Amino acid sequence: MRNPIFTFLVTALAALALLVPNALAIAALATLVAATEIQVRAVEEPYLERTHGDAYRRYRARTGRFVPGVGR
What we know:
Elements lengths: L3 H16 L3 H30 L1 H9 L10
């Protein structure tokens, strides 16, 4: 997977939302997921593609974004 830190953050907050299922925890989880998607798709991936070119495109084609094998 290309973004293990973000995967862990979302997983940890999802676990917290399951432990403390209230509106704030669920809203925080939804906000984190949206912010992570925006950060990765709009900022990180375009930068890596500009910087590393074809090497990054090949890596991206065989590696999942947040889960191994998913989002290629």
